[in-house]
Amino acid sequence: QVQLAESGGGSVQAGGSLKLSCAASPRILGISEMAWYRQAPGKQRELVARIFEELQTSYADSVQGRFTISEGAAKNAVHLQMDNLKPEDTGVYYCSAIRLGVPSWGQGTQVTVSS
Predict the structure, then answer these.
(1) I need a labelling partner for 91 at 20 to 30 A (CA). Which of 7, 19, 99, 108 fits?
(2) Calpha distance 115→17 (Å, rounded)
(3) Helix (H) or strand (E) segment spanning residue 23
(4) Taking Cα atoms as reference points, which of 18, 15, 60, 17 lies closest to residue 36?
């Protein structure tokens, strides 16, 4: 298990921006992918964005063009810049990391977007 520390999140009005950050210890080797998931009340957890092999990225269709996942300055750190937020982006956002094929999860951070 990889310990993940999340920060950011909060409440914002529609059209606003937030930035989430996630980091694991830079001494950990073998993390091949980091990603952000979210879970809205009463819904299943869904993939929002991921960064993997040679800094490739992929996004859920619902956030494409509004969210940007990027590597942090430190090893094993990622950011999720969320722009033009919509009420449907509300939920608990979880950071994940895959190391040697095994996923680990952060505790989650709440994002609330009001209309």
Answers:
(1) 99
(2) 13
(3) strand 18-23
(4) 60
